Known about the structure:
By secondary structure, this protein is mainly beta. The chain is 4% helix and 40% strand.
Amino acid sequence: MLNRRGVLAAGGLAAGVFGVPQLLAPSEGHEDSTHGEHKPATFQESKAFSGPRPEIVPWTRPMPVPPVLKPLVSTPKQEIYQLSIERTTAEILPGLQSPVMGFGGQFIGPTIKAKTGRKTLIMFQNRMDEAANVHLHGGHVPPEHDGHPKDLIEPNRTRLYLYPNTQQGATLWYHDHSHGTEAAHVYLGLHGAYVIEDDSERGLNLPTGAYDIPIMLRDIQFDASGNIVVFDDPANRTIVLANGIPQPYFEVAARKYRFRLINTANQRVFKLKLTGDKFTRIGSDGGLLATSLEADELTLSSAERADVVVDFSKYPIGSKITLTDAVGGEILRFDVVRRATDNSRVPAALRPLPALPLSTVDREVDLFYVFKPNERPDGVINGKVFDMDRVDFTIKRGATETWLIKSSDPTGVKHNFHLHLVQFRVLERNGGPPHPGDAGLKDTIPITAGETVKVQATFTGYTGRYVYHCHFLEHSWIGMMAQLEIVP
């Protein structure tokens, strides 16, 4: 069982893994005090796994592009969808079907495309044998549709989620947020891309259509027989997936592409590079940046997103460009296979960020562990384990606040921070300017013990209760989450 020494050792894990070993392993007889009635998801082994795990041969399978979900009904004001939540299987390792969970029966859920100003109504049907729910990560939505940890879809029940899509175009994603089971559910496959398209971007002439591709990155661990290992040291999740496949290739034309990169790993940080090339970063969690930025390396902690443009027109047919990670190695290979007409461009100026209003409230948010003899630690925020019946911050609707995010854990222990309902702006990191990855509108940021990050948010929109938490899901699962209430 994890003890204080184990957490201190976590700072020495391979770079790129923000986590603590075995936080998911429950103590014998120990019930989750934050959500006792719901146990972590069970895992059913497949009888098809009887021999050694098959070898992954790089670049032998294409990277799939998740299909776009088709609406049941489309009206001038909204689209209506239906989507199941179910146990299923997926061929992650070649030739083997792994038991997983999936939206729409897929390990990577279908992409949902919305438009700014048009509502999305989704009927989620839970066909599993345990409760689940859905959170639109980065969405500006009413509290009853946010996927609050207490708002569950029980087995064989349906729940309606209404997404107003009043925000600007952005790359979001949807995933399970059922407290006590969110870490296992997301790890087993309950996640998908949600793209809000904004007509105001048309004048920028960025790559669109078949040249606008979501790529969901994550890690995973299998045992010797090929079964998915759910509860173990996150450092052992050494296989990296791009849209659900390890080391796939993706055929591209010699032209510009927009890639919407989403880190859907439970608690991993990717440090991404392109062999012999650079990224042109155009978007962050909340949408377009003010200006496009050239980057040799792109860092994404769990749940962060980045929209980038890669121009393959400089390469001759037959070229191969590889996306790599500092820890995970080669992730994805782009194969230039044809020429194509390209009228798109990447302007230097994209979308001005809104002016920062005057902040009237200052708060501190401290993420750390509390250790207990012979038991797993508690994850806490400001010294308290998550309690659904407790409101930690009361905020006036429309107020602008400055939050100082920090961690009192020993140096080297890492977390990240996610705020529901609204995006924020990073003002400072460690008393100095923000890092390049902090640019734009953010809803998720990494925070290492010893760091301080000052952010500013304006709580417009709705009244009601929302959560903020560490988005290393094994950390929020043990209580590193708190609740705010927005009042009139």
